[in-house]
Specification:
There is one protein chain. With 223 residues, the protein is mainly alpha-helical. The protein has 7 helices and 7 strands. It has 2 domains: 89 residues, 2-Layer Sandwich (D-Amino Acid Oxidase, Chain A, domain 2), CATH 3.30.9; 121 residues, FAD/NAD(P)-binding domain (3-Layer(bba) Sandwich). Bound molecules: flavin-adenine dinucleotide (FAD).
């Protein structure tokens, strides 16, 4: 289920229940609600615990202040359709996660290699964080096997992964362009208009990616 309040995105989907139970009625329901928050003001306020400490990289769920959760439930009632507002209301302990981007200029420096989120942390709309980290790891293993020298192995690894990782970063920026907390320039506004409609979200995030995932899963199963 997708919902697009102005400048925001909320989605919900079933996930496995306890003991990986996939039967309807035994699964859990996950929801995500992307809400722009200017970093120095609103984001810091949300990430501040009851003792006044700001958890910039992410606040542990038990430390999210009750008034922040009450505000979330109130906003859900005001902005979301009743089905999603009910999901938010029934969640005993909603947690929040700030979204940052990380993009390294080099995945390799000397004998050090950066992989996964440490190298490229894309916006979540591409849903590629796990796949990207695993593919980095596989490329590194392949390169180490194919080369006797560490330096040439790392050069091969970096050449294989930088381009695709940059594409994932850009795709995440494009898909999330209409969810930005800061004022946008002309080109960002154009992208926001392009990617922020219900039709674009459904075809670019929901349906197309789902179909592609199913196709690659089938290819994986049948060779
Ligand atoms: C709320 C949330 C939802 C997400 N949902 C999705 C999703 O649906 N699909 C998807 O593809 N991706 C999702 N991601 C992103 C995904 O989790 C990451 O992209 C992925 O885990 C990156 O893998 P990684 O191995 O690079 O880093 P990590 O999985 O973060 O692994 C890094 C490890 O290093 C350890 N570590 C850190 N510092 C040290 C140290 N000094 N010494 C030793 N160990 C250390 C950490 O404890 C951690 O275990 C989500 C992320 C979050 C936060």
């Amino acid at each position: 289920m997708f919902c697009l309040p102005p400048g925001e995105q909320c989605l919900s989907y079933p996930v496995a229940g306890p003991d990986n139970d996939l039967r309807p009625g035994h699964r859990r329901c996950n929801f995500l609600w992307y809400r722009p928050a200017p970093e120095a003001t609103e984001l810091h306020r949300l990430l501040t615990d009851a003792s006044g400490h700001i958890h910039e990289l992410g606040i542990p769920p038990p430390l999210v202040r009750p008034e922040v959760i009450a505000e979330l439930r109130e906003a859900a009632r005001a902005l979301l359709p009743p089905q999603l507002a009910e999901v938010v209301g029934l969640t005993p302990r909603p947690f929040l996660q700030p979204i940052y981007e990380v993009e390294t200029p080099h995945m390799v420096r000397g004998r050090v290699a950066l992989l996964g989120d440490a190298a490229y942390l894309a916006r979540p709309h591409v849903a590629a964080g796990v796949t990207k980290a695993a593919q980095d790891a596989m490329a590194l293993a392949d390169a180490l096997q194919a080369n006797d020298e560490i330096e040439s192995a790392l050069a091969q690894f970096e050449a294989a992964r930088v381009g695709i990782n940059r594409q994932v970063m850009q795709r995440g920026r494009d898909l999330g362009s209409y969810l930005q907390p800061h004022p946008m320039g002309a080109s960002e506004r154009r992208k926001a208009a392009l990617h922020g409609t219900p039709q674009a979200v459904m075809s670019e995030v929901a349906v197309l990616d789902f179909l592609q995932a199913m196709k690659s899963r089938l290819r994986g199963s049948f060779g």
